[in-house]
What we know:
This protein has 9 helices and no strands.
Amino acid sequence: MYLFLQDRMKHSDPSKDHIFRFLFSSYYGLAGAGLTVRFLDRYFQLLADATKHSKAHSLSAIVSTLRRCPTRRGYRTLQFSFATKLVATAVPTEPIYDSRVELVFGFQRPPNYLDFAERLQRYLKSYESIQEFYALALADFRVQQTIKTFIARLAPKSCLPEAKALDFMLWTAGGLLRKHEL
């Protein structure tokens, strides 16, 4: 699905392509998160902007912008995971961050009683650790070989970026940890 979304995004505007929006929302979990149409419109406009410029805007700025769009229940939430998925879609070398990745790295979700700025700083610090891990892992010959084997078995005719293969491996490991199978 990732490669399909990347290909479709090359030929359409993600803010206007309803098929892309539906598939992206389903794939990355936005569909069941209680988000409003206003939130989704702003999200996909930010994705379109980031894609046009071939670089992601500040993760902090994206989170702050999305916070202005309340959920269906009327809350202004910190949607860090979805912001990283936006950034990682626009810039495929960037990692994603979600509850499964949190499990793999042993991160604690910042408590809701903290103010927005403190919670965001804690998420950003964890994300920075993941970025550092990716840089080290993707520079390691043994990890590169493992990723190449992974890609050859699961997507042999694709040009899946190594960082996305690593995303998938960590996300899958987090799912197994969640189920207590790892």
